[in-house]
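FW: tagging you since you asked about this chain on Friday. Here's the raw sequence from the shared folder, copied in full. Didn't touch anything.
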Amino acid sequence: MSFDIAPWHLHKAGAALAAGGVIACPTEAVWGLSCDPMNRAACMRLLEIKQRDWRKGLILVAAAFEQLPLFVDLPSNNAMRRATATWPGPATWIFPAAADAPPWLTGDHDGIAVRVTAHPLMRSLCRRFGALVSTSANRSGRPAARSITEVRLQLGGEVDMIIPGALGGLAKPTTIRDVMTGHILRR
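HL: got it, structure written out here
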C-alpha cells in the first residue's frame, strides 16, 4: 500500500470534508477519523461515531504550523522551539487555545492538541483542505483500527469515505506533550 494519495481520492476527500463529511484515513500509527474542525456539525457527528464525550477535546493535524494559529495562542519562543524541533513528525503538543477556538475542539480544556504531520497522505489532505481533526478510528474504549479492514468492520457504514493507504510505521499513537512545560501527557 502507498503512503501517497491518488489525485481522485484527494479530490473526493476534499469534497466530502467541504460538505461536512467524516472520512477515515491512515495516519502515523493508526487509522484516523477526520473532519473540518470549524464545522461543529461534522465534529459532533465524528464524536457520535466514536461514541466519545466532546469534553475530552480533539486533536488537530496540519501540513504546516501556519494552518494552526486560528486555533492556538502562540507560546514563548522557547516553548515554540520545543514543538517545532519535532515537526513535521509524530509529536502532538498541547498549546494554549486561542480565545475563539471552538469549544467542541478544546472540550473542557484550556489547551488544544495539535500536530504538524509528516505522514504524506495526511500532509496532502491538509495542504488541500487545511488543518483537520484527527482522532483514532474506533469506538471509545476499543482498540484503534490498524487496518482498512478494521475500519470497515468498526465504522465502515458511518463514515463518508475511507481513503486507502499505509500507516506511517509507528507502533502506537503519537506522544502528547505540553508545549509550555515539555511534560509528557501520553507516551
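FW: The chain has one domain: 7-180.
HL: agreed, and The radius of gyration is 15 Å.
FW: great, closing this out.
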